[in-house]
Amino acid sequence: MQLNVDGTTHEVDVEDDMPLLWVLRDEIGVKGVKYGCGIAQCGACTVHLDGVAVRSCQTWAVDAVGAEVTTINGLGTPNAMHAVQEAWAEHQVAQCGYCQSGQIMQAASMLAAIPEPADEDIDAEMSGNLCRCGTYPQIRAAIVTAAAKLREG
Amino acid sequence: MGRIKTIARRTFLIGSAAVLGGVAFGAYLYKKPVANPLVDDLADGDAALTEYVRITADGVTLITPRADKGQGVYHVQAALIAEELDIDLDQVTVDPGPPSPAYYNTALSEEAPGFMPTDDRFAANATRTVMDAAMKIMGVQITGGSTTVADSWDKLRVAGAVARETLKAAAAQETGVAVANMQTERGAVILPDGRQLAYTDLAATAAGLDPVDNVTLKDPSKWRYIGKDMQRIDIVPKSTGTQTYGIDMELDGMVHATVITNPRKGGAMLSANTADAEGMRGVLKVVEVPNGMGVIADNTWRAFQAAQAITFEWGPAEYPAEQDDHWAVLAESFKKDHQDSQYRDDGDADSALSKGDVVTAEYRAPYLAHAPLEPLNATVLITDNRADVWTGTQVPRFAQDAVADITGLDKDDVHIHVLMMGGSFGHRLEIDVITQAAHLGLAMKNTPVKLTYSREEDMAHDYTRQIAMARMQGTVKDGQVEALDLGIAMPSVISSQMGRLGLSVPGPDAMITAGAWDQPFGIPNYRVTGYRSADLAPISSWRSVGASTNGFFHDSALDELIHAAGADPMDERIRLAWDDNSRAVLDEVAQLSGWDGPSIGANRGRGVAFCMSFGVPCAEVVEVTNTDRGIQIDKVFAVANVGRVVDPQNLSRLMSGGIIWALGHAISGEITHSDGMTDQLNYDGFEAMRLYQAPEITVKGLELGDHVRGIGEPPVPPAAPALANAIFAATGQRIREMPFNKHIDFV
Ligand code: FES
Ligand code: FES
Fold it and tell me: Which of residues 450-469 of B touch A (CB under 8 A)?
């Protein structure tokens, strides 16, 4: 099947029900997408499907056919970071950093839908993303900064 | 800074060695240096030192021997060297270094049994020195116990200074300019006429000189990095998905694997039917590993699927099959013949307890998983004459030994490459995943194999935090705490953990009462007894180790007695504290939180708790509201004395993370066993804190005294008791068992 990932089309030979997570990591080599739980409990595997955050461990490969898949590696790069990534670096959010790809993808998707999120919006949208290092206060602060950056364009 | 120099002379010598294309600076340990891996292939074997700085024509490398599990220690260690070397962090490469006996971690031995970290008496110091020597012999390279900053503080700065002065001497030799007239800045020696000589160009000359070891460390007023917020060197990679963790390892021709081993931890595999698995798509090989099977495939998910298709017959575990029986073993252990230590026995507890009303209570703390978000993994490549292992580990030396054993290779031919870890909290002190990977690698010689645990396998085999129980009796008199007698029962975490590494540790296990016996309170009749229960499920160090349970027991007990005395929780702790720094920490947290008593309005309450662990006194105040949906944690204030704050921002991140960690587990974390197996196998059963529950946190680090301490663990022990004390203030309900959600609802 053909998958469009971060603007590039890849031909992959996988089972229909292989989770997109493992297609991305082991078949295409996109390593920014992380495995944490495999059962939609941690959010480390979050990517965008046509701009909307999904858990790639719960998305079958076949369901991503025809969609635009965006991963943390396609959202921005170290030399050209997305506003959310910039805010994350400014606030030094990451500790171990393992959850942060998913946190950033979830936040970017939320901000696209809710440009000025209230605290309750952040609670509701971000609580599915687990951070074992406890970076939640910094995540909240970085989202506020990112929202301002995005509004300024 | 005369004191630093004395230390430098007494316990380590900074030296230099010629290496291919340049010069390395580092520490000679004692008189007889331990062999240095970095110069093995390079020099004539003469230069045996622990390298911290390597300068060649190609660039400057700072070698940071302590592993980074997410706490930012790579940049802290690099900053300590760079501060003195006069180079900026954007000009250097940071390398965690290979495993080597030379990288021993002195600060761990400060937790020597029976001496408080605040105790500077001769006997205590003498014991620490003996422990230092023992750790050197064992070649301990362990990242744990919040020791990184303490261990690095002197050595890395002196190494940077020696390198700087030697480079100046090299510049003097090349130019004839007197050293006194030179400056150093951004990796270059600057001559009086403004000419700049890059360190990289001076390296070859410096290699031929005796190192200048008569150095003066910079005055704190001149520091560029220390004491200031630093940009972590890993922050951009970790914000862009470009940081490579162990699990992201990729090698040409690499294959993917997973294992399933007996979920009754340590039990044998009696039989396995692998027929279905072997026929599945992508499966290359099914291989036996100790107590289980491994599947090697062309994709991690296919390996997971095939492993699920194996049917097993498992043998029993050595520990009780059902959780209730674990508790029963602890309850039976409060007896003389289980007594392990009684480091605290002030006044006469028995006689004090024979008079008046005695307050009694029993406390419990469950097993807890480490469950770092990156599951355990290891990548190996084994050939006929060499093994390479890429993994995130806190104990590379032990991993090296184990892989040498399994492969039959010489230890020198086993190369451990330590990769960035997606959290550890103590999980990566264990090496099962590495030994299993070695078995798989042997079955696939010359092909790189990456072993990844499923989350379920990771949690089924987590060597958890100890389970523990405590019993308190106490009395009060004239509005003051008069007697506190605390007994703590748990299995020995040190013997469980060290036993798996093939080491036996004689004598009492200091962890059984750490965080309780060593608290700086002048209670007139004060006794803390440790009881070592029979071994139960295998256990391991979990962020703050013994203090993670004992800090809860000790401070909860103290709070109950203070309440019985009718005293103010803050005032009475301050009155009882005899250690100046501990009192300062309590004073400061009272200030910061605006403390004026436990009551802060209708349905609201606040609690304070204190614990000294790893030499760091830490006090926390928690504020809660009892809402109609349950307890909501509103705010936390925390103060700790670390002696020196190397990076204030990193300190506040680690403290805030440690508090969220501790509160989350106190609320809902628990690992239990049924039929010998772990009941909670994923985050749905072991949730910890989520963003919507995270309180507003205000922290402060004090810089009192001259010991430098790490802050990874000390914020953990006071958080649970401060929360329990706050819930008591808000509701009148005393919670004596973790997880608290067994007794009260949370928002
Ligand atoms: S790996 Fe997909 S939610 Fe955890
Ligand atoms: S930063 Fe470690 S899990 Fe979030």
Answer: 452, 454-455
Closest ligand 2 atom, residue A134 Cα: 4
Owner of token pair 């005796």: B210
Average pLDDT over residues B304-317: 98
pLDDT above 70 for B150: no
Domain spans of chain A, in order of start: 2-75, 83-152
Cβ of B241 under 8 Å from any chain A Cβ? yes
* Interfacial A residues in 131-150 facing B (CB < 8 Å): 131-140
Q: What confidence score (pLDDT) does residue B661 get?
A: 97
B18-52 in b/e form (b: 16+ CB < 10 A) is: bbeebbbbbbbbeeebbebbbbeeebeeebbbbbb
Q: How many C-beta neighbours within 10 Å does residue A48 have? A: 22
Q: Which chain B residues are Cβ-neighbours of A72 within 8 angstroms?
A: 240-241
Domain A2-75, CATH among 3.40.50.300, 2.115.10.20, 3.40.30.10, 3.10.20.30: 3.10.20.30
Query: What tokens appear for B120 in the block?
Result: 């500077």
Please answer whether residues B444 and B327 qualify as being in contact, where contact means their C-beta atoms are separated by less than 8 angstroms.
Answer: no
- State the pLDDT at residue B505: 76
Q: What is the pLDDT of residues A37-80, one digit of tens each?
A: 999 999 999 999 999 999 999 999 999 999 999 999 999 999 99
Task: Determine if ligand 2 sits within 6 Å of the CB of residue A99.
Answer: yes
Q: Using a CB-CB distance cutoff of 8 angstroms, which residues of chain A are in contact with residue B301?
A: 18-19, 21-22, 26
Cβ neighbours of B736 (radius 10 Å):
19
What domains sit in chain B, N to C, each tagged with a CATH number?
A: 2-105+140-239 (3.30.365.10), 247-317+376-452 (3.30.365.10), 323-368+463-742 (3.30.365.10)
- Spatial separation of the C-alpha atoms in residues B170 and B16, rounded to whole Å: 13
Q: With bands split at pLDDT 50, 70 and 90, how would you rate the model's confidence at B66? A: low
Residue B420 pLDDT more than 80? yes
Which of these ranges, B36-40, B229-233, B559-563, B684-688, has the smallest mean pLDDT? B36-40
Tell me the C-alpha distance between B202 and B200, whole Å. Answer: 6
| Alpha carbon distance B574, B590 (integer Å) | 10
Interval B489-527: pLDDT, tens: 999 998 898 888 777 777 888 899 999 999 999 999 999
Residue B97 confidence class, pLDDT cut points 50, 70, 90: low
pLDDT, chain B, mean: 87
* A29 interfacial to chain B (CB closer than 8 Å): yes
How much is the ipTM here?
0.98
- For β-strands B22-29 and B414-418, DSSP reports them as unpaired
CB contact under 8 A, A89 and B664: no
Q: Which two tokens stand for residue B59?
A: 């660039």
B254 to chain A, closest Cα gap in Å:
10
What's B601's DSSP letter?
A: S
> Closest by alpha carbon to B550, among B595, B504, B614?
B614
Contact B535, B319 (CB under 8 A): yes
Task: Name the percent of chain A in helix, strand, coil, to the closest 5.
Answer: 40, 15, 45
C-alpha to C-alpha distance for B547 and B512, rounded to whole angstroms: 9
Q: For ligand 2, say whether the CB of A136 is within 6 Å of any of its atoms.
A: no
- Look at residue B271 and tell me whether its pLDDT is greater than 80: yes
Give the separation between CA B306 and CA B673, rounded to whole angstroms.
26
Range A83-152 has CATH code 1.10.150.120: yes
**B115-145 tens-digit pLDDT:** 455 554 434 443 444 344 344 434 444 444 4
Q: How far is CA B518 from CA B397, B500, B628, in A?
A: 31, 28, 40
In this structure, are residues B619 and B577 in contact, taking their beta carbons and an 8 Å threshold? no
What's the pTM value of the predicted model, to 2 decimals?
0.89
